[in-house]
Design goal:
InterPro entries: Actinoporin_PFT (IPR050677), Anemon_actinoporin-like (IPR009104), Cytolysin/lectin (IPR015926). With 162 residues, this protein is mainly beta. It contains 1 helix and 12 strands, in the order ββββββββαββββ. The chain has one domain: Mutm (Fpg) Protein, Chain: A, domain 2 (Sandwich). The strands form 2 sheets. Strands 4-5-1-12-11-10 form a 6-stranded mixed β-sheet, with no helix packed on it. The longest helix has 9 residues.
Length: 162
């Protein structure tokens, strides 16, 4: 289960997590998709699941465009990668968050980059319940992922003060 929340504050009214939600599912499926828009102070959730009777996990990523409400233009894109494996003997839950150019596609290449790559535009860690934080030029993304067979990821997006 994913939860994404955009912090409401006086400095967080210019960005809107908007309708350009994209998902790339490497393995598993999306049982309940995210809402198309998450306004400041609001939250959204989605449910991704493993296939029944199959020895596969649920692995993929999702992206949201960030709309600058002053210019009504897409400013950049946030991405969340997740991996909840079938077998904990060989793998563990892994997740990553990052901010990318608005033209970045939500596809296998971005998934691979977030799962394996070393990139200053993202932060990645194994799930253990502790917080992960990525600070970009305009926004900060904080996330946690539980270390369980049915993990929960919580993501919070806030605008940086200028």
């Amino acid at each position: 289960m994913f939860f994404i929340k955009q912090q409401q504050s006086a400095s967080c009214t210019q960005l809107l997590i908007t309708h350009q939600t994209r998902m790339y599912i490497y393995s598993g499926n999306c049982a309940t998709p995210f809402p198309s828009t998450i306004a400041p102070g609001a939250s959204g959730k989605a449910l991704f699941s493993k296939y029944a009777d199959a020895a596969t996990g649920c692995v993929g990523l999702l992206t949201y465009d960030l709309l600058n409400k002053d210019t009504n233009q897409t400013a950049e894109k946030i991405a969340v990668m997740f991996s909840a494996p079938f077998n904990f003997n060989f793998y563990s839950n892994l997740y990553a968050v990052g901010v990318f150019d608005k033209s970045k596609l939500c596809d296998y290449d971005l998934y691979y980059q977030m799962y394996y790559g070393n990139d200053i535009r993202l932060k990645r860690q194994h799930a253990d319940g502790s917080s992960l934080s990525y600070v970009g030029g305009n926004i900060t993304i904080k996330a946690t992922m539980s270390d369980s067979y049915q993990p929960v990821i919580k993501v919070q997006v806030s605008q940086n003060k200028k």
